[in-house]
Amino acid sequence: MHFEILVEDQSGKKALDILVPKIIGGEHTFNVHSYKGVGRIPKNMKDAANADKRILLENLPRLLKGYGKTFRSYSKDNYQGVVVVVCDLDGKCLKAFRQDLFGILDACNPKPETYFCIAIEEGEAWLLGDLNAITSAYPKAKTAILNSYENDKICRTWEKLADALYPGGSSKLSEKGWQGIGAEKSKWAETITPKMDVMNNNSPSFCYFRGKLMKLAGIS
């Protein structure tokens, strides 16, 4: 099985480059492609006017159409490919968001085998699902803040992690702007994910992602 994994930012790629091999083992191949934000699903499912901006949802109709054609050629070689789209829920309605995503997929002909895995509320929820990994990577982390977190709760997730890890908390980190926040998120991904136990994670949305990959990889 070959996995094409699409994720909305660089920190997500850094995390999944480390986590995916822990889940699927070494018998399968994968690529993780990062984008410069999630954006919005284009109206009428039209392709992005400017694909060079590399915004995930705006490019998704074009990407899935391309994967559909590519994966059709895989079948001739008895080789299977699958797309996994990973993005944050943020403040969206999960049911409506998934319906919109499947609308993009249903417009493809041929249709690539595709799964949508939504981090609730943000990708940092998957890190917060393993507090042992966080405290191992950051021994000075504020455990009271970490222990107050409710898994997959809509609660300004990255800010919660920043309050536990970053000197001065999320308010201080916010002073650096989105570029500085993104750099810190990437640092968290690189530092925490190597210590994560993928089979023991309290984030339901991470467990859904893990379960999909394991099933596709034929791991019971």
Rg from alpha-carbon coordinates: 18 Å
What is the CATH architecture term of the largest domain? Answer: 3-Layer(aba) Sandwich
Largest beta sheet: strand ordering: 2-1-3-4
Question: How many E-type strands?
Answer: 4
Q: Give me the strand/helix succession.
A: EHEHEHEHHHHHHH
Structural class: alpha/beta
Number of separate domains: 2
CATH fold description of the largest domain = Rossmann fold
Look at the structure and give the CATH class of the largest domain: Alpha Beta
Protein architecture, described:
The protein has 220 residues and is α/β, with parallel strands linked by helices. It has two domains: 2-123 and 202-216, Rossmann fold, CATH 3.40.50; 125-195, no CATH class. It is built from ten helices and four strands; from the N terminus they run βαβαβαβααααααα. Helix 1 packs parallel to helix 9 (177-192). The longest helix has 19 residues, at 56-74. The protein is globular. The model has no long low-confidence stretch (mean pLDDT 93).
